[in-house]
């Protein structure tokens, strides 16, 4: 294998090693702030909240996971859309979760 091929192989090994642990997708703090500000608006409707959450897929996936957890879904009726998750969780939990996801990502990216 040529030296260039060995270098490429080492790069691939490094990438594989990095991906073998927890993969963090940097969450845009602006997205969490947008969710918070949208939820603060007394005239905001569900479609606006869904749109704000849709900017950051990691926040949306965390909300869906939380909405499908045993504590919020004791009947076991799984959902897969953000609007239903918001309805199930309520605006306060959505706001808190979106900010928690952003802070968690900021802490992990610092390391």
Q: What is the 3D form?
A: elongated
In DSSP terms (H or I, runs of 4 or more residues), the helix count works out at 6
- Structure class: mainly alpha
The count of β-strands is 0
Major sheet description: none
Order of helices and strands: HHHHHH
Termini Cα gap: 35 Å
In helices, the fraction of residues equals 55-70%
**Spans where pLDDT lies below 50 across 5 or more residues:** none
Q: Estimate the mean pLDDT confidence.
A: 82
Name the features:
mainly alpha, 69% helix, 111 residues, 6 helices, single chain
Describe the structure.
This protein has 111 residues and is an all-alpha fold. The protein is built from six helices and no strands. It has helices at 3-19, 29-40, 46-54, 57-67, 82-89, 91-110.
Structure described in brief:
The chain is mostly helical and 111 residues long. It is built from 6 helices and no strands.
List the helices and strands and how they pair.
Layout lengths: L2 H17 L9 H12 L5 H9 L2 H11 L14 H8 L1 H20 L1
Helix pairs in contact: 2-3, 2-6, 4-5, 4-6
């Amino acid at each position: 294998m040529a030296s260039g091929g060995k270098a490429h192989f080492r790069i691939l090994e490094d990438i594989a090693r990095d991906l073998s642990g927890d993969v963090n997708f940097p969450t845009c703090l602006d997205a969490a702030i947008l969710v918070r500000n949208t939820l603060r608006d007394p005239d905001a409707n569900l479609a606006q909240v869904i749109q704000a959450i849709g900017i950051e897929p990691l926040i949306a996936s965390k909300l869906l996971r939380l909405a499908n957890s045993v504590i919020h879904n004791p009947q076991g009726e799984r959902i897969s859309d953000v609007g239903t998750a918001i309805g199930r969780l309520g605006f306060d939990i959505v706001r808190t979760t979106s900010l928690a996801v952003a802070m968690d990502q900021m802490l992990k990216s610092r390391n």
